[in-house]
Each structure stands twice: as structure tokens, then as C-alpha cells.
Amino acid sequence: MALASRPLGRRERNKQEKLDRITAAATELFAEHGVDEVTTQQIAEKADIGTGTLFLYARTKGELLLMVQNARYEAALKRGRADAAAAPNVLEAVLAVVRPIVECNRMQVENGRTYLREIVFGDPDEPHHGEAMSIVVETEEIIADVVRRDGRFGERGAPTVARLVSSVIFFSMSINVNAPLNAEEILEDIRRQLAVVLHP
Amino acid sequence: MALASRPLGRRERNKQEKLDRITAAATELFAEHGVDEVTTQQIAEKADIGTGTLFLYARTKGELLLMVQNARYEAALKRGRADAAAAPNVLEAVLAVVRPIVECNRMQVENGRTYLREIVFGDPDEPHHGEAMSIVVETEEIIADVVRRDGRFGERGAPTVARLVSSVIFFSMSINVNAPLNAEEILEDIRRQLAVVLHP
DNA sequence: GCTCATAACCGAGCGTACTCAGAAACTATT
DNA sequence: AATAGTTTCTGAGTACGCTCGGTTATGAGC
């Protein structure tokens, strides 16, 4: 360990490499075939690791999906936050925050719905679930800020409104009858409901 | 088939008998141990039928849960509708409709959450899922009626408000962070959110 | 009653997510 | 560089939901 430029041992580097391979394999297979049509065996094989090894990096298949997709939602949220500034009123500002998330979710409907299912019903003790939850929390905080800026609901009311918006988003993207809708149609569905609360 | 008093053949009677035994077995085992801790084998054994036979009556384990629980929710809804009449304002009326449903759902938290998961993510082509969906639709219709009676959101707005209420109910009962809450606490959570829309 | 077509039933078997006991790889120490 | 201790890896094995080909029960026609 003479070199300060190499603080990481081979062990750490190997681990990182495997994680990268797993992420790449899962990302590609999920995108191409959908999470339900891909087996954990296939992912392990493509990542060139043993089947047991896969579960050292993500304890369940659901965690694997969260692991692979969280970053995209984080990026989407960042975009939404930026877009919200230019909106003419609360309703449009909230929708500006929501739009990239919905678009991200609808890139592949089944994966999107599975992602939501995993957030709502998955094991809250798993690390990637925690990461997903903090994205949800951050989303609500951003929406609460937007609502606060409007002033209509006061300091205390803003988080409640944000929570309500969360409910509407999750439900609209999850329910079976909305499965055929594309991002734009989902957004229209959400707008109609939020207009009741945030009439401009 | 000389007797008009026995229009059903042995075949139909046997089927009905088996269905009854399955329902009884599943009801008891789910209630006692929770849906996740019960195997389909156990249910089949307790109902005294082959494992394959079980799946002639409910195509998936999830369907089995819906089959067993739908009736309770239907009854809860009926109670709620009756209670709504006596409420002093819209918010209280909506909560009167919602209360029995939440109480029904929280009798056993894990089963309740699984029931919701099955409604939102289950196969919409299955018969018991369809039945569950029609309970949801009916709930929204009742809430829409209550909202219409208030007049605040007009004829067109009422179904949208009802849908929004659905979102809030489902989300509040489903999310992991609310898992420790009892029926009364869930209702309080729902009330806080609905108050934003239905302020008295 | 006998025959046959059909509906209902059964349980061995399959696919797949996940586990676990032992093997292998790595690091620290001398 | 040999040893020991620890972490990481592995794939055969397990559990469980569900399927499917073969079997049995039922009832209609004669």
C-alpha cells in the first residue's frame, strides 16, 4: 500500500467492477424485454457472475429494478425543479415538476408500473428502496415549496398539498385502466384532478 | 331429473361444495397467519382438494384473496353509504363513506395492503379482480353523489373529486410509512388531506 | 342399465426467485 | 513467501406458485 494514488485495494475494485457489470446487464435486459420477462439467471449470466452473487448486490429482483432506475428519476426530478421556475401559476409549476417524472416512468409502461409497485409495497429496509423513498420525499419537498410560494395554503398546508399530489401521481401512473395511456395522457389525467385543488 | 325442486345436478352441487370449502379454508388461514405466510398447498389440503383443483376456482393466489375478501368490502361500502346521510357537511359525509372501508382494510394490515396491491397491479381480466374493481367504481359513484349534493364542484367536477379521494385513500392505506397506523390514524391522515379540497 | 362425450379433478412436474455451505480470492502479518 | 483471517463468490439446492397430461365422475342418449 505504498501508493497513495491507489487507496482502493483489488477487492474494492473487483466489487465495483462486478456492480458495474450487473447494472449494465440489468439495465439492458430490463429495457429490452421488460422486468417480468427477464430472469435473474439471465442477468447473472450476462454480467458473468454466479446466480448467488447477484443477490449480494441486490437482495431481491425488485431491488435490482430500483437500483437500475433510481438515477433516472433523480435526473428527471432535477429537470422538473428547473422547469418549475418558468411556470405562470401553481398548477403549471406543479405539472412542470411532475412532467419529467411521468415521462421517465412511461418510457416502458410495465417497468414503470413495477417501479411504483416496488416503492409502495417493497421492503423499506433495503438500500435502493430507501434511495427511491428519498426521491419521493424530495419531490414532495419541491412541490411543497412551489405551493408555499403561491401562498394559498399557508406554511402548514403546503406539505399536505404536496402529499395529495403524490397520491394523485402514483395512483394515476399505477392503475390498470390507465395502463394504455402515454405520458401526455397521464399528465392530462393528473392535471384534471389537480385543477380541483390548484385552480388558477 | 324428475324433481323440479332439484334443478341442480350433482356436478353443480359438488362444485359449489368445493368452492365453499375453499372459501372457508382460505378465509381462516389468511385471517390466522396472513396471506404471505400461507401456501396454496395448505389451503388445498385444508379444503381437502388437489393442489391443481384450487387453481380452477381462482387462477392465482391473489385472486383467491380478492375472492375471499370482496364481500366484506361490499358490506363495508353499504354501511358507509348509509352513514353518509347523517353527516353535517361534505367532508364528514365522504369520511363516513370511507371509514368502514378503512376499518375493513385494517382488520389485518398485511392482508389489507395485499388486497390493495392486487386491485392496482393484479390481472384485470380475472373475475374477482373485476368484482373488486366494481366496488371501487361504486365507491367513487357514491362519493361523487355526496360531492354533487354539496354543489361546490358542479355536475362535471364531482367524479373528478371522487377519483381524487380514491387516490388519497389507496395511497394512505398502501404506503409503507403508514403500515404501523391503525384505522383511526389512517382516517386522520385521509381527513387532513381531504380537508384541503373539501374545507367545510 | 350401458356407452360415450364432456366436465371436473388430481398431483407430479416445471420455472424461477432466492439461500446456504463450502470454495476461492484477497489482505495483513511475520 | 508462507500463514492465517476475512471477505467475496458460487451453483446446487429449496420453496412455492402454478401448469398440464392423464384420470375419474357425471349425465345424456339409447
Automatic annotation (TrEMBL), chains A, B:
Mind telling me which PROSITE patterns this protein's record contains? HTH_TETR_2 (PS50977)
GO MF term (any one): DNA-binding transcription factor activity
Q: Which domain of life is it from?
A: Bacteria
Note the DNA-binding span(s) on this chain: 39-58
Q: Cite the entry's keywords alphabetically.
A: DNA-binding, Transcription, Transcription regulation
Say yes or no: keyword DNA-binding present.
yes
Q: Which residues form the HTH tetR-type domain?
A: 16-76
Q: What's the name of the protein?
A: TetR/AcrR family transcriptional regulator
